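Troubleshooting: if your tokenizer reports a length mismatch, compare your output against this known-good record of 155 residues.
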Amino acid sequence: MIVDVFPKGTRTSRLPQEVAWSCDFYVTICAEPRRQNHFCRDPVGSAVLSSARHYQNLSKWGVHLLLLMPDHLHLVVTPYLGYDITGLITGWKRFLTRSYRLKFQRNFFEHRIRNSENFSAYCQYVRLNPVRAGLVIRPEDWTWVYPRLIGPSDV
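Known-good structure output:
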């Protein structure tokens, strides 16, 4: 017997949590207005990094990489069983808005990472973002990242 895991009338783009729990996602969240430094300053930057670790400690997600840029952030993350990426990001943005008066663009970009090759490519792309933007010379010099980069081998 074939069981349809998508109830009639639902969007198939949202996988049931039981199916999607072990998926890695690449996420980009933009602040508003763009071209201003919202994240790369204390206490906000430290609080954003800390809140992501807090979600991890609550077993909501596993953060592989979180990198803050002045007007946006990149996140490589795995939602844990019982949590979906949309709900997690929406709740996290709501918390950051209420706690630190950050304003975000309405939506966010998310992409499901399909294999270890893509995973490595996304992580390298994210880690090199401050270098491409001319903010640092080496990725390991960027302080607004979790987990903290130690040296060139981490890129």
